[in-house]
Amino acid sequence: MSHDPVKEISLDLVRVTEAAAIAASAWIGSGDKESADRAATQSMRERLNQMDFSGRIVIGEGKKDKSAGLFGGERVGRLSDGVVCDLAVDPIDGTRPTVTSGPEAMSVIAVAGENCLYSTGEFYMNKLAYGPQIASKIELNLNEPLARTIRLVSATAGKEITKVVVCLLDRPRHESLIRELRSIGVRIKLIQDCDISGAIACCLPDSGIDLLCGIGGAPEGVITACAMKCLKGGFQAQVVHPDGKPVDAKIYSIEDLVRGPCAFAATGVTNGSLLKGVRFSSQGAVTHSVFMRSASGTVRWLTVYHGGRQ
Asked: Cβ(117)–Cβ(257) under 8 Å?
């Protein structure tokens, strides 16, 4: 095995998310979450099983969402040996916006070497994400009072507090957090779903988002850690119960959640701020994807015409 097993499968990962996104697109606006998830999952599994590698699903959402899988422990790939990788998958990050024609849904996958991805039986994480312009200068702390964190972000980014933008999921559990942020004086961007793209936006200079915080899915937290490692952003998380109470005192860094080289790929299902959704032309399906790899630091934005084939 090479030092970076992820490199050997590289852009094949984009083909995996493309297949899942195209399958999911047939269910946009349908109101049928189970069928959308099943279609995307089956397509993702089929494409993974066409790859010349040996993979193990470490993070999947089957149990929480009563989905068709892919389930933790499932093996994928053509080979029983050879390149061995851990995978964190979400065939549709944003099933609800998919079936309601909402924004930001995408298919995502993150890959690292064998036994390099964190796995948890809990379903939620309290998260803090910020971009490389801040991470290169300071390390924020999830345990710090939010007002202090905002002051550090303001000073490091060279922005007045009233111009700092904080992104978080629009959930009842965040009511007190929203009140606190408003009392501090920052601008708030509330998103309905898909906090993976919200975290990634912190790393994109034109997004205007400086910080992501709040409680979201634990599987998405591990996938986010891979993306943030590739983008050289900052990310911390704590595993919590559904009511937000910590499972334990441990604060997980990026290196705790993903060790060694990793890669991240995503393809838009519906239009979002990060990726355009699947559309259809005379040349077949058109997809918009991003692929990034931590070892090289490369980020590729891909528009692909699928030649009439799905």
From this structure: yes
